[in-house]
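Recap from last week: sequence in, structure out.
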Amino acid sequence: TLLARYLNLQDIGKSTILIKNLMTGAQPKKIRFKKFYNEVYISLIEFSSANDYRTYTNSSKRKTVLYLDRDKIKFTAENGFVLLNEQLYNYPYEPIWIEGEIWVCARILAELFNDNTVHKMSFNSAQYEFIIGKKEVNITNINISSKENGTLIHVYSEKKFTKKDISLKIANDW
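Predicted structure tokens:
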């Protein structure tokens, strides 16, 4: 039950996580954390504030959306699924609602962004450090759809391509 889950929540008190944002070059910032089933949980509001990201919270539905550049991730308390850039992912450690805000597993938050966006994130649970960077990539997404007359490929990138950046080679009817 939900009550049993909250009995496993441990408030570590003044213990903090160090957030190192290599993108901004700002001084590392500290935010509070709580332990829940031996996982480190952080407040999305504090995480957002420490990194100058935006959030939107709907308290009646107990949902929070985190906006990080062009990426958007939606969390709902006690729901094992998150919506990242309109793609649904199973979130193995459910977000929890504590005193009017969503708390999420730091390790899984880092993995979601690292595996599915251009953002490079990692959480070191031994040293309680959350590191944010950017991958050295230009392509951010590819969508492929079938049409009556062929296949349409949309390539999304960090910057606009010029004509000299694009080439087409036709071989073997491809």
